[in-house]
Backbone:
C-alpha cells in the first residue's frame, strides 16, 4: 500500500469519484487551472475538463447555492471553500437551505452536496486563515460534519460524503495536508459517516479528539506509555451528529476523560461530547471530564509568539494527559 | 393595454390557451380570497397572497413547458405553481397544514411551494435563496446537455439581497438558461420602493451581469407572456439568462399578519384596484369575443365549486401524526 | 411599578436609550412607519424621526455591516433582524467582523453594535419563523449573547447592551412578547451582561434554563412544591460567555441538574453548561446531568400536531423535573 | 496617456503635489519589493502586493482629505494608507508581525490595515466586508452632519460578493457620501476576468444602484485623481455615492504563496510591465520638467534608505509577548 499525504488522499478520492460517477463535479475559487490554492484539485481539470472543474466567481453564497440547485437536479457537486474562514457568507445557504431541503419537502427533494473546506491553524495563517468553524454548524440537524485526521480516513470518508444522499461539510485540517502521511489503499473503499474510530487502545485514560490534535494525542500517548500510562484514543471523525455509543464506550472504558480540540473551548464540540458522557455514563467516571482546547480568543494571531501560544502541541497535550492519569 | 383585438394570436396563443390563462387567474384569486376568509374565521393560521400579481405569474408560467422546465418560485407564486401542475386541493391542503400537503406534508407555511413531480423546487422563507438554486439547475442542465429552462421569481425588495447579485452574476458568466423574474409590487412589507432601491428599474441591474433586462407591464398577461417567451427562447438557444421585471401591485396586505393601513393610503390601493389584472383581462377577452357575461358566470361558478371542494377536502383531511416530526432529517442509511 | 409585557419592555428600553443618547439609532426592515412586524419599535419614528428609525432595504448583511461601520464611527446602532431565522445572511458580518473588530485591531477600534432578533416558536411560525439560533454564535469570542426571559430583565439588559462597548446579540423570545408580563420600573437601570440570575431558590434539584422554557420551569417548580419537591431555578440570561460561577454554584447546591432549552439538544447551549459542571464540580453531583431540549430535527414544523410535538411545555418539564428529583 | 504638458495644473495639483504622488508610488513599490526579498529569504511569512496598482491607489487617496475622510481599504492598498498617514516603518512592523505594528499589534497578516488615528478602518481577510462598513460610516457622518467622505476599495473579483451589492444599494437609497473604488487588475488569484463577470465593466453596475459609475485608466494617477476628485465633490455636496473602476494589472503573483505561471502567460505579464504606472508617471514628470534623472536618483536613494531603516527597525523590534494573545477580546468592564 502506498504511503501518501493527507492532501493527496483528498485529490485521490476526488479523482476516483469523478471517474466512477460522471455526475460528480468540483466547483470553487481557483480549483481549475490553479488546482486549488492548496493543490487539492491538482490535475483534475486536465483529466476532466473545465466543465467538471469549475472556477467560479468569488462568491461563496453562490458557490454553495448553485451547488444546491445542481444537487437537487441530480448532480453530485463538491464545492470547495478556499479557507473555512470564508464559509461565513454561505452560512445561509448551508443552514437554511441545504440542511433543510429533505425535511421541509417531506422527503420529496434532497440535497447530496459536499462542501470541502480547509480549516485550522499552525500555518502562519493569522486570524482569518486559521479558524476552526465546525461548532457553528454542529447544531444543525440535516447536516453532517466530517473532519478526518488520517489520509486513510480522508479517502474513505470523502468518498462516502460524495455518495451520501445528504449535505456533508467536509473539513480538512490544513496543517495535516502535508504533515500527515499514511497508508492508503489504491482500491475503492468508503468509511461510515457517523462512526468514531478508536485510534489506540488503552486502559488508564481516554482521550477524545479529531483533526490535528488527534495526532498530538497519539504522539503523547506513545511517550506516556514509557511512563506506564496507557491512553485510549478515540477519533471522532464525524463531528455532527456525534457517535454517542462510541463516546460512551470510550469514556466508560477508563473512567477518566480528556477531550482535546484546537477550536476555542467554550461552545466547542468538546462541550457536547462532555455532556453526552455526563448524561449517559456519569457513574462510570473517576475524574472530572477535562477539556484541553484553544483559548477563548477570536482566532489565532499572526505573530509567531501569539500563534504558538494559541496552538496545542504534543507537550501541552502530554501534560494534560499525565495530569488526568495522576488524578 | 391597447385593446387591439386578438393580440394573443399574434403571440402564438390559441383562444383556448388564453381562456386557460383566465381560468388560472380567477382560480388563483378565488383560492386566495377563500384563504383570507378561512384565516379571519380562525380556521387557518396564515395567508400570503398573490392578489394583484396573477397576470404576471400566469403570463410567465405559460411561456414555460410543463414537465420539462424547472421553477424556483417565491411565496406569492400561486399562479405559477397552478399552471405548472398543482391543484386547488394541493393549495388548500397546504393552507390547512395537512399531512397530504404535497409541498411539505404540512411542515411549512402556505406559499412554500415544492413538488418534484412538477419540477417545482422546494422553497423556504428566507428570501432570494432560490435564485442561486435556479442557477444551479441551469448549470446542471447545461452540463448534462438537457433542454431545460430554470425560472426563478422574487420580489423587488428581495433583489437587494446578496444572493440575487451572486446568482445573477454566476448565470451571466456561464450563459445559463435561467430566467430571473422580478415581481415588482412596489412594497417590501411596509417599505416603499424609494427606500428599497435607488435605481430607475430593477431591470437596469441586468447590464451589470451581461445579459438583457426587460421591464414589462405585469398587469397584462399577454405582455408578460411575450417577454417571457423571448427569454425562454434565448435560454433554449444557449444565449443565456434574462432578467424580467414585471410591474404589479399587491392589492392586499403583505400577509394575514399585516395591517397595511399604517404605510399606504387607502386611495392608493383603490386606484390600483382599477387596474386589477383580472378585470383588465376579462375586458380583453370580452372585447375579442371569447368571453361573454354568461360564459364568465359559468366559469366563476365552476371555479367556486372547485374552491369549495378543495376547502372541504382539506379541512377534513388528517393532520400529520405528531411523531412523524422526527422523519426525514436524513435519507435512509441515516447516521442517527 | 407598572406591569408591562415583554415586548413593551423592549420598546421602553429603546425609547429611553434614544432619549438619553442621541447616538443611539434603530435600523432594520419595517421598523419605521410599521413600527416593526412585532411592533417592538412602535412609536419610535414618531418620536425620533426617520433619520433615527431607519427602514432599510431587505438585506441583512448590509443591515449589520452598515451598523458596524456606524458603530465604529461612534454611533450606537441597534439593528433589528426581523426574525432570528433571517440572521443567517449576516453571519459573516457578525462573526468575521463585529466580533473581531477590537481584537484584530489590538484594541484600536471597537464595535458597540446591538443586533436584536426575535427567536423561538410556539406561534405557528413554522420552520423559518421559529428557530433558536443562539448556538451558532455561542462559540465566537468577542460576541456577547443575551436572551432575557422577563420584562424586567429585558429592559435592564437591553439598556446594558446598548451601552456596552462591544457587539451584543440580543435574542427576544417571540412567544414571550405578549405572554409574559411583569413589573418594570420606570427609572433608568441596567443589569450586568454576563451574569445569570437565580429566579427561584430550592434544595432538591437545580434547573438551568433561559427564555420561554424558564417560565415552564418556574411553573412546574410551583406545582412540584406541592408534591414536596423543591427546585432551584437558574436563568442564564447571558448565553455567551456563560456565567460559569453561577452555574457551578447552582449545580453544587442540589447535586441534581436538569438543563432545559427549546433549541435542539445536540450542540445546544445545554452541552456547554453541562460540560462546565462536569469539569468544575463533578463530585458534587448525585445524578447524571440531564437535558430536556427540542428534538434534533431541522426546526419546528407548521402543522399544529407537529409544532406541539416539538415544543416543550410545563407538563413535559414537570415530568422531567420529577424524574430527576426521584433519581 | 496623452503627454499633454502640465495636466496636473489643470486638475488643481501643484508641482509639489505631483512630486509627492511620485514619491508615494515609488515608496510603495520599493516597500513591496523589499517584502518579497524578505519573504524569499525566509524572514517574513507572507506578502501581498500593490505592484502595478500604485497609480490607482495614490491617485485616489490624493483626492481625499487626511485626518477628515475615512478609508476602508483592501489588502493591496499600501499606496492608499501611506498617503493617509502610515509610514514605511508601520508597513515593515506589520510585515514582521511585531508588537509595535499599528494595524494589529502583529495579530494580522500584512495588508490588513487599520488605524483610528488616520481614520483607516480595521480590515480583515474575507473580501468585501469593508464595503457595508464604509456605507455605515457615510450614514453616520450624514446623520451627524459631519463633512466626511468614506472611501472603500476592493478588487473586481470581490465586486461579485453579495456585500458589494447590498452595500452599494444601501448607499444609493440614502444618497450617502461613499466612494466605491474597484481596482480591476484582471484576475482574482487565478481566475481571469471572463470567468468572474460577464458585464463589460464593473462600472456598469452603478446604474443598478442609481448613482454614477466611471471607468478610468488606473495606470494614470492624474486621471484617477480627476474622477476621484469629482466623486469626492459629489459626496461632499450631498449628491451621493460614485462607483469608480480603475483598470490596472497585478504585476506580481497574487501573494507570496502563489505561482502565477500556471494561469497566465509570461508574455502577458511582460506586456503589462511596459505599461507600469511608475514608469509612465516618471515619463510624465520628466516631460513636464519636474523630474530629471539626477533628481530621480536622489529620490530613489532617499526612499531606499527609508525602506532600509524601516526594515532594520522592524526586524529588530520585539514580538508581542505570548500571553498578550488573551487581551482585548472585550473592552474593559469585560464579562470574562
Ligand atoms: C432573509 C429574509 N429577511 C426578511 C424576511 C421577512 N420578509 C418576508 S417577505 C418580506 C418583504 C419582501 O418584499 P419583496 O421582495 O418586495 O416581495 P413581496 O412580498 O413584496 O412580493 C420580508 C422583509 C425574509 N423572509 N427573509
Ligand atoms: C470571502 C473570501 N473568499 C475567498 C477569499 C480568498 N481570496 C483572497 S483574495 C482573492 C481574490 C480576490 O480577487 P480580487 O477581488 O479581484 O482582488 P485582487 O486580489 O485581484 O486585487 C481570494 C479568492 C477571501 N479572502 N475572502
Ligand atoms: Mg415587493
Ligand atoms: Mg483582481
Residues:
Amino acid at each position: 500500500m502506498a504511503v501518501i499525504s493527507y492532501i493527496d488522499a483528498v485529490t485521490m478520492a476526488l479523482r476516483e469519484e469523478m471517474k466512477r460517477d460522471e455526475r460528480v463535479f468540483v466547483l470553487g475559487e481557483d480549483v481549475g487551472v490553479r488546482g486549488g490554492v492548496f493543490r487539492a484539485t491538482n490535475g483534475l481539470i486536465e483529466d476532466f475538463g473545465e466543465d467538471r472543474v469549475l472556477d467560479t466567481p468569488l462568491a461563496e453564497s453562490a458557490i454553495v447555492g448553485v451547488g444546491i440547485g445542481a444537487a437537487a437536479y441530480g448532480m453530485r457537486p463538491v464545492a470547495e471553500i478556499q479557507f473555512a474562514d470564508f464559509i461565513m457568507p454561505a452560512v445561509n445557504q448551508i443552514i437554511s437551505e441545504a440542511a433543510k431541503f429533505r425535511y421541509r419537502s417531506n422527503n420529496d427533494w434532497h440535497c447530496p452536496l459536499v462542501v470541502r473546506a480547509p480549516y485550522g491553524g499552525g500555518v502562519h495563517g493569522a486570524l482569518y486563515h486559521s479558524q476552526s468553524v465546525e461548532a457553528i454548524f454542529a447544531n444543525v440537524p440535516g447536516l453532517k460534519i466530517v473532519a478526518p485526521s488520517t489520509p486513510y480516513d480522508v479517502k474513505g470518508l470523502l468518498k462516502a460524503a460524495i455518495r451520501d444522499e445528504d449535505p456533508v461539510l467536509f473539513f480538512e485540517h490544513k496543517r495535516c495536508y502535508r504533515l500527515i502521511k499514511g497508508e492508503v489503499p489504491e482500491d475503492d473503499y468508503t468509511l461510515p459517516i457517523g462512526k468514531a474510530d478508536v485510534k489506540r487502545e488503552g486502559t488508564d485514560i481516554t482521550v477524545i479528539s479529531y483533526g490535528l490534535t488527534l495526532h498530538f494525542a497519539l504522539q503523547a500517548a506513545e511517550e506516556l506509555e514509557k511512563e506506564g500510562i496507557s491512553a485510549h484514543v478515540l477519533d471522532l471523525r464525524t463531528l455532527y451528529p456525534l457517535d454517542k455509543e462510541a463516546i460512551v464506550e470510550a469514556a466508560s472504558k477508563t473512567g477518566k476523560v480528556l477531550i482535546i480540540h484546537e477550536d476555542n473551548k467554550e461552545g466547542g464540540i468538546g462541550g457536547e461530547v462532555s455532556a453526552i458522557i455526563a448524561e449517559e455514563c456519569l457513574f462510570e467516571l473517576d475524574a472530572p471530564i477535562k477539556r484541553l482546547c484553544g483559548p477563548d480568543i477570536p482566532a489565532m494571531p499572526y505573530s509567531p509568539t501569539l500563534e504558538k501560544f494559541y496552538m496545542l502541541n504534543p507537550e501541552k497535550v502530554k501534560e494534560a494527559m499525565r495530569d488526568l492519569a495522576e488524578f | 393595454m391597447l385593446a387591439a383585438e386578438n393580440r394573443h394570436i399574434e403571440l402564438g396563443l390559441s383562444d383556448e390557451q388564453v381562456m386557460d390563462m383566465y381560468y388560472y387567474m380567477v382560480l388563483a384569486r378565488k383560492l386566495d380570497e377563500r384563504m383570507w376568509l378561512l384565516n379571519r374565521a380562525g380556521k387557518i393560521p396564515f395567508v400570503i397572497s398573490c392578489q394583484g400579481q396573477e397576470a404576471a405569474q400566469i403570463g410567465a408560467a405559460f411561456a414555460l413547458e410543463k414537465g420539462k422546465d424547472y421553477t424556483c418560485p417565491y411565496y406569492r407564486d400561486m399562479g405559477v405553481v397552478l399552471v405548472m401542475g398543482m391543484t386547488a386541493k394541493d393549495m388548500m391542503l397546504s393552507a390547512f397544514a395537512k399531512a397530504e400537503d404535497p409541498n411539505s406534508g404540512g411542515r411549512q407555511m402556505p406559499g412554500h411551494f415544492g413538488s418534484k413531480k412538477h419540477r417545482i423546487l422546494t422553497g423556504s422563507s428566507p428570501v432570494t435563496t432560490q435564485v442561486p438554486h435556479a442557477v444551479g439547475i441551469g448549470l446542471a442542465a447545461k452540463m448534462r446537455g438537457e433542454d431545460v429552462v430554470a425560472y426563478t421569481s422574487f420580489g423587488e425588495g428581495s433583489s437587494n439581497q446578496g444572493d440575487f447579485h451572486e446568482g445573477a452574476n454566476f448565470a451571466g458568466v456561464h450563459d445559463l438558461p435561467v430566467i430571473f423574474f422580478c415581481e415588482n409590487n412596489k412594497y417590501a412589507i411596509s417599505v416603499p420602493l424609494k427606500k428599497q432601491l435607488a435605481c430607475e428599474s430593477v431591470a437596469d441591474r441586468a447590464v451589470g451581469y451581461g445579459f438583457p433586462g426587460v421591464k414589462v407591464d405585469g398587469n397584462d398577461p399577454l405582455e408578460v407572456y411575450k417577454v417571457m417567451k423571448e427569454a425562454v427562447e434565448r435560454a433554449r438557444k444557449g444565449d443565456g439568462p434574462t432578467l424580467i421585471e414585471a410591474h404589479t401591485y399587491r392589492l392586499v396586505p403583505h400577509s394575514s399578519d399585516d395591517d397595511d393601513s399604517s404605510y399606504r393610503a387607502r386611495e392608493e390601493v383603490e386606484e390600483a384596484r382599477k387596474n386589477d389584472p383580472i378585470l383588465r383581462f376579462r375586458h380583453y377577452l370580452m372585447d375579442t369575443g371569447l368571453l361573454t357575461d354568461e360564459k364568465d358566470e359559468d366559469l366563476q361558478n365552476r371555479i367556486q365549486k372547485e374552491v369549495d371542494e378543495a376547502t372541504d377536502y382539506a379541512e377534513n383531511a388528517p393532520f400529520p401524526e405528531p411523531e412523524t416530526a422526527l422523519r426525514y432529517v436524513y435519507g435512509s442509511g441515516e447516521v442517527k
Summary: The domain at 25-275+305-324 of chain D is CATH 3.40.50.970 (Rossmann fold). The longest strand of chain D covers residues 178-184. Chain D has a mean pLDDT of 96. The pocket of thiamine diphosphate (ligand 2) is lined by residues A 29, 58, 60, 82, 86, 89; D 76, 125-127, 154-158, 183, 185, 187-189, 250, 254 (CB under 6 Å).
